[in-house]
């Protein structure tokens, strides 16, 4: 209808040993955030090249983002005092 052809491919089935699939269990040393509940530090996220590229594209400076984060922290602290 739209001039797109799709080839039918057989579904891949995993072998009984799971070859070709990542191992489950302990994450590799190269993947420190591979375990549930482990989160990167804010400084790590803000220095990540992908984050910096997105900030550049969006016209967000590091100073502006720092100010937004500080305001959010102060707002949360003020709410906790009220409770």
Mean pLDDT: 76
Strand coverage percent:
under 5%
Q: If you compute it from the alpha carbons, what radius of gyration comes out, rounded to the nearest whole angstrom? A: 22 Å
Low-confidence stretches: none
The rough form would be described as: flat
What structural category arises from helix and sheet content? Answer: mainly alpha
Give a nutshell description of this structure.
With 83 residues, the protein is mainly alpha-helical.
What does it look like?
The chain is flat and about 45 Å long. The protein has 83 residues and is mostly helical. It contains 3 helices and no strands. The chain starts with 41 loop residues before the first helix and ends with a helix. 43% of the residues lie in helices and 0% in strands. The longest helix has 21 residues, at 62-82. It has a domain at 42-82. The mean pLDDT is 76.
What are its keywords?
0% strand, flat, mainly alpha, 83 residues
Write the layout of secondary structure elements.
Elements: H1 42-46, H2 49-58, H3 62-82
């Amino acid at each position: 209808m739209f001039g797109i052809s799709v080839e039918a491919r057989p579904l891949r089935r995993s072998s009984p040993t799971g070859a070709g699939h990542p191992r489950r269990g302990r994450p590799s040393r190269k993947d420190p955030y591979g375990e549930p509940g482990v989160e990167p530090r804010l400084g790590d996220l803000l220095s990540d090249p992908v984050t910096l590229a997105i900030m550049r594209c969006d016209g967000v400076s590091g100073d502006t983002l720092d100010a937004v984060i500080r305001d959010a922290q102060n707002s949360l602290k003020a709410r906790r005092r009220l409770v």
